[in-house]
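Pasting two entries for a bug report.
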Amino acid sequence: MCPALNDQICAMCCGTKRMVEIRCPSDCPYLATAREHPPAVVVRQQRQDLGLLVEFLRDLNARQSQLFFLIAALIARYKPSELESIVDDDVVQAAGTLAATYETAARGVIYEHRAASIPAARLATALKAALTEAAGGGGSAFERDAAVILRRIEQAARRVNEAGPPDSRAFLALLDRVVSRPPGGNDGNDTPVEPAGESRLIVP
């Protein structure tokens, strides 16, 4: 018996349509069991994702780690225009050019580096706007940390994309799994990059 449909449902439909086509209530015993005992393939993916995150966060201090997750969440939630889509290479370009801009500014030179592709340039612009708000007067110290994290994300996107089978959105899929959804499932968020002030992360 499916409590959401108030009708009988087969095990296969329950497993494949749960929280996809069927909005399961939070007290559904089958949903609770699935969360407590996920399939082996899901467990393997979670372990792989955790291992990659540990690698990405190596040598970072607490503030830089928070900034990493803030930028990762901004990328994961970024929504390009209806006529565009972004892939991992756009993330590499956006993170790299924005890191170069911050690195240049830290040396006292104001120069706006630009990404080669239009989607990457627009992503970089959106990220810079959010990070400028997050800086809150942090000055050169924030810019240095931002440059470090953006370089790390640039490297991480390359690493994920090159490590597995051919997939132009492998890194974006990783971010979608680990940072874009709040606890309990997808919240249906279809908004553009959120202002950093609305993030639940606090970046000193």
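Entry 2 (this is the one that rendered wrong in the viewer):
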Amino acid sequence: MDPEHAVGSGVGTAALQLALATGATPIGTTRKQDKLGRLQELGLEHAVVTSDGTFADQVRAAGQGRLADVILDTVGGKYLGENIKAVALQGRIVVIGLLGGAKAELPLGLLLAKRASITGSVLRSRTLGEKLSLARAFSGAVLPLFERKLLRPVIEDVMPMADIQKAHARMESDDLFGKLVLRWS
């Protein structure tokens, strides 16, 4: 069981499809009940609607008592405590976003008891060499999944670049599903 936060986002829908393509059993968190139908169409069987930021008990229920082996966290600070509760013994939490804040209190006792690990990752600060290496690895491992129709881009809307302020407002509204694409024309 592998939770992915903000599963209806562009990163979340990509992570969901990658998890399914590799045989993992994803659990996705979302704050919006109305995204569940579209998530099910993408193959998500276990969804957690979390309007209050709690999800560990629901992860355990979805896993029939099992906790998460891996948590992909796009939210950050706000979810750290729940992530520690939801991660399995020797599980991993990978933080790739900070939409919920860059700081949080870390329940060290629970982290130690679970012998879990927390890893942070971002592309922006990597060297050009690292980025090239990742691009090659992506080309070899992920592009074939697109060719086999196991992955597909999830695009909510395409808007002209002139509407960038409207696009930004839509992104902040949390009403998007997948990606919003801006075009130059």
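Dev reply: Rendering is fixed now. As a check, the viewer should reflect this: The helical segments are 10-21, 36-41, 56-62, 80-86, 108-114, 128-141, 143-147, 164-172.
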